[in-house]
Amino acid sequence: MNRSKDIRAFIEEEIFDADLPFEFISGRRVLRSPKKGKPGVPIRLFMHSNVWDYLSLDLFEDYQNRFMAPYFRLMTRKIRPYILHRCVVLPFLRIEDKNGAYSVEIETLFSVVSRVEIHPAHHDYQSPHGSSDKMYFAVKQLQKTETLESAQANREIRAYKRVTSIHHAHIVRLLAIYAYLDRLHMIFPWADGNLYQFWEKHFPDACSLPRSHSLAKWMANQFYGLADGLRRIHKLEVDPSLDELQPEDHRRTHGRYGHIKPENILWFKSPGKESAMDQIGKLMISDLGSRDFHGTFSKDVEVHAAGGYTSTYTSPESDFDKQITPESDIWSFGCVLLEFVVWYILGWHGVRDFAEQRNVDSNTKIPSDQFFNFFEYKHDLNEAKLKSSVYRTLAILRESDASSDLMIDLLDLIESRLLRSRTYERASCDELVAQLDTIKNSCAGSEKYCVQVTRGKLARIPSDLSEKLVTPVFSAERKNS
Hints:
CATH architecture of the largest domain: Orthogonal Bundle
GO molecular function: ATP binding; protein kinase activity
CATH superfamily of the largest domain: Transferase(Phosphotransferase) domain 1
InterPro entries: Kinase-like_dom_sf, Prot_kinase_dom
Protein name: Protein kinase domain-containing protein
């Protein structure tokens, strides 16, 4: 526009970048951007026809959008909300769609997740997973029209705000939220895949999987880290300095995740170190949309109030009376842990075969790959037990030539303390973390522990704790209460 000489006039009228975008009403009436609900103030500079003709005004209106790309502060402890004008040009570089749209990776009825590259001059993010020439982010756009005000009640955003102060190595952080074009958006670090994709991509054939000391140590470290992340969710202490939280959030001290499944465990690989098994990357808990927190005397919540649940990994009590508790998370964690051991010993094809076996093993009209079956007995008593296919798989894994002391300890933990129909027989999250810490330390101290069976393979002896026996867990009275 060749009007750099007018910069001083803007400064003298105390007009700065924060006043953009200007609102061009009619004629020479131009307003500053409204602030905090207050109407914009007229700009006197544009009222002089001898200084700003109509062509210059039109050019300013067109060009101002190019100078409004936001700078995202993504490294702060507090999640900063950005309210972006509809004329703002986002500083996203990577456009892969032939129609000019951002690459859509995941689309559901509730949200669209796109992979974007933010211009390095417009963010301050430093990846904890290593440096890279290109840094990608996941932008999650909620399908429902929301404002930042209504976002205060959004379950997922409130959940992420509560864990922001944790900076846990195995919980994905929400980096920023912004409102744009009547939609709410959330910015996350971009993951290289979820746990299912990791299993499928890395050594789908059991014969090609290098069951080395380094891989075993990596797995044990990830199990411990994920369990510790879950414990932090269960026993989250709210940072009182986070003033953007609602008052009721400060009173809620207990959480349960309610959505543990391989798709919600994300894999972040270590750049430039893909070949080293001990540097294969990190697994992190994501998708806190179904997670919620409750006060000290209210740890249970109904499924619909928790944003639903995942059928495959749901616990018997969640499936029966639609209640999600911290104990429900322990069951789901046990299911995922068992599938991880299946992958290690039998490969990705073994994971798929295991799911199909559970489908065939269902006693319902519509087959399900859940890990248990319900049985109805006299007096309208509902009972649950592990499917026989789960027991067969546990036995196969123990007897496999690819097994080890590590794998047997994991299988014992899964069968005796995680996949229990009675909730009071399941391990607490503290116990789970403690046992996985012991296993992790054993891996670090002994290579043989990770890759060999040194103690002999003892047959499992049924006892009153064995889930092979039908165990009553629900009654008609509870169902109708």
